[in-house]
Write a structure and sequence with these properties.
The protein is an alpha/beta fold and 333 residues long. It contains 8 helices and 14 strands.
């Protein structure tokens, strides 16, 4: 397939080789390419074209899966686009010895694109803490963006001592961002209207206010997974309060898939107690362990979880089935 008239292309691809084929000259007038790639790897790479891409003016690269070939594949690939005016990157980088920061972006990308006018990015890079003498702080990372004109780059760093790893998030401009990797308590907020799928993880508790920030920052979120085994410190539950303490009931109006396999009971309560979170009607599939669901719903008799449970349309109980006496508690499942 080829074309001498195609100027702009928006496409989803299975692998990185497909992207290289698109840019091997068969679309010689192409100046704008938006590509979302399922998986980026050097395995089975069958196109190793190294020629410059002088006609390309706008390039956007999205990949939901973590990549281990950022320096090996992505950086040399981008350096072929010397006449780019707009670049957008949405990547999760693993397997490197240092974080992707402002210095790295300037040295390896920006300095190779003299005409670049707009650079939009969200890059989350992870490194192992093993054998690390010094790990950059949030302040260190932010300082590397001191030459980025007047743009407000957001950055923060998460440290996970148990897993012996650290994550660095850097981003600029949020309107088109599709993928956000591992939201923690350090998440600074912001509006991400195009993100539909997020995962929450931390080794410190998530309080009720955190879930409110998530709803405000990801208003169109459809898929949410949560991993946190730490109990909440400030549990808010109206059924156990006599002072009618005021707190916000959180709405997730577009949520369709919720995974709670690795969640403490407090977070199952957070999503099922109707005075905490309001779920959409007959729309949500939940992945959860049967014993936890039974425990949090008080053997499927608890009134404060009845309304949200009645809104669920399917359950995956890790091989278990609901008992017959619980069917009325989940009328749409």
């Amino acid at each position: 397939m080829s074309s001498s008239t195609l100027l702009e292309l928006h496409i989803s691809l299975a692998n990185f080789t497909d992207c290289l084929y698109i840019l091997d000259g068969r679309f010689n007038k192409l100046h704008t390419l938006y590509v979302d790639i399922d998986f980026i790897s050097s395995l089975h790479l069958t196109n190793n074209n190294q020629e410059k891409l002088p006609n390309l003016r706008c390039f956007s690269l999205f990949c939901e899966m973590p990549i281990n070939v950022y320096n090996k594949l992505i950086v040399p690939f981008l350096q072929r686009m010397s006449n780019l005016e707009k670049l957008c990157l949405n990547l999760i980088v693993r397997g490197e010895n240092t974080f992707v920061d402002g210095n790295e972006l300037k040295l390896n990308i920006i300095n190779h694109m003299a005409r670049l006018q707009r650079f939009e990015f969200y890059i989350c890079s992870s490194i192992s803490l093993r054998n690390q003498i010094y790990v950059q702080s949030k302040e260190d990372i932010q300082h590397t963006f001191r030459d980025f004109k007047d743009d407000q780059v957001i950055s923060y760093v998460d440290y996970f001592q148990k897993e012996q790893c650290s994550l660095c998030h850097i981003y600029l401009y949020l309107d088109q961002l599709k993928y956000y990797y591992t939201v923690t308590n350090n998440f600074p907020g912001g509006l991400f209207p195009c993100v539909r799928k997020i995962s929450l993880y931390d080794d410190h508790p998530f309080e009720h206010e955190f879930f409110l920030r998530i709803a405000q920052s990801f208003p169109f979120m459809q898929t949410l997974s949560l991993k946190n085994f730490k109990p909440q410190n400030n549990k808010l539950c109206k059924e156990s309060q006599n002072d009618n303490q005021d707190f916000s009931i959180i709405n997730y109006p577009y949520l369709t898939n919720l995974t709670l396999y690795d969640a403490h009971d407090d977070y199952i309560e957070e999503f099922l107690v109707d005075t905490k979170i309001c779920l959409p009607n007959n729309a949500v599939h939940v992945n959860i362990y049967y014993e936890q669901l039974k425990r949090v719903t008080h053997n499927f008799t608890r009134d404060t979880t009845r309304i949200n449970c009645a809104k669920l349309n399917s359950l995956h109980l890790n091989g278990r089935r609901l008992p017959k006496y619980a069917k009325d508690y989940f009328p749409h499942v």
